[in-house]
């Protein structure tokens, strides 16, 4: 897992199934999006979840762009 790159995750309270987005984001940006989604849809909980190694591998080019942008 990577603590700087995240995906948006969401689920309904009381339901164990969690869904994860496919697009990678810097964690700070993902948290801002999750906060906005939580305001718009309070019945669904959204959060920034650290990207898994599999997600990073599947989207390696995107992860590299995010890391390069973060270093600027």
Mean pLDDT level: 91
Number of strands: 4
- Low-confidence runs of at least 5 consecutive residues: none
Order of helices and strands: EEEHEHH
**Global shape:** globular
Rg over alpha carbons: 13 Å
- Separate helix tally: 3
Helicity level, as a percent range?
40-55%
Structure report:
Strands 1, 2, 3 and 4 form a four-stranded antiparallel β-sheet that branches. The protein is α+β, with helices and mostly antiparallel strands. The protein has helices at 27-40, 53-58, 60-71; strands at residues 2-11, 19-20, 25-26, 45-51. It is built from three helices and four strands.
In short:
The relative contact order is 0.27. The chain is an alpha+beta fold and 72 residues long.
Features:
72 residues; alpha+beta; 44% helix; globular
Strand and helix layout:
Blueprint: E1 2-11, E2 19-20, E3 25-26, H1 27-40, E4 45-51, H2 53-58, H3 60-71
Antiparallel strand pairs: 1-2, 1-3, 1-4
